[in-house]
Amino acid sequence: MTSPDPDNPPWSLLDALLTWAASVLLSVFVPWLLAFPYLASHYPGAHLTSEVLRADKTLVIIFIAGLLPVHGLTLVLAWAVVSRLGRLSPTRVLGWSWKTDFGIGKSVGLAILLFLVAMVIIYKFGGQETDLERILLSSRAAALITAFLATATAPLVEEVIYRGLLYSAFQRVIGPVFAVMVVASMFAGLHVLQYWPNAGAISAITFLSVVLTTVRARTGRLLPCFVIHLVFNGIQSLIIVFDPYLRALVDSWQHHAAGLGLINFLFGVPL
Known about the structure:
By secondary structure, the protein is mainly α.
């Protein structure tokens, strides 16, 4: 029996696009569905504005925590498409393995380099507050939940959908070069609203997306992309977890301007 080829997947481009669309719809509607009982009990008949919703710390936590079932449902859906309901090995079909000349060492090293480059991009071109920053600053619970999701589930879900399902299907139809361009644009485009209007954050997430998709095209494997994404997000999650101590350290320096620069530097990097 022929071994599954990640560059010649058993799913069609339509299958991949429908799975991607379903994942987007889940991320929009599931958090609202989970938040509905809270909204109905705390704001009966009220005209809600975005300002009111953003100011409610409990509601922000509900929305962020709602991404956990979204990620779970997305993975189940992706498994069904990739494995053809269990008939194929998803790890083999997706290329969940190392390539001889691109192993864990290169993946971790590239992730650290990408993070440093992203920080420089943010420092040079960022500055405007993003929705992510507002979430992180809304409450400690929201920040910790965000850090957990950014490491525990987001890298796996996003890599399976974008560099797994979408790239594999696109490259078979339009070739690897155009597939890299399309998939990288789709990944970055979905994050634009999250990081608008911070040009630095948008540029950084676009750069990350291009590199991740190029790695997938170069290696023919998904595992290196996942590890790069995991380490990249993991560094940010550690920064979020230890943020109170970093702030205390900055305050102890009694240098307000430098402190603001450090916090913007750390919080501006995309998840």
